[in-house]
What does this fold into?
Amino acid sequence: MKKTTIYMRLVGLVFIFIGIILNFQMYIYEEWPIYLFLVLYLFGVLLIGLSYLMKPKP
It folds into this structure.
C-alpha cells in the first residue's frame, strides 16, 4: 500500500508539472486558454490529496 501512495504522489506531481508547462506555453505563445492546464493541475492535486487520505492496511 505504501508503494501505491508513492506512485500516486509521483503521478500527481507529473500532472501538476505538465499543467504548469501548458500554462506557461499559453502565455508565451499568446494562445486562447483551453483550460486543459487547469484540469491537469487539479487532477494532480486531487491525486496527491487522495494519496495522503489513503490509510495503509494493517
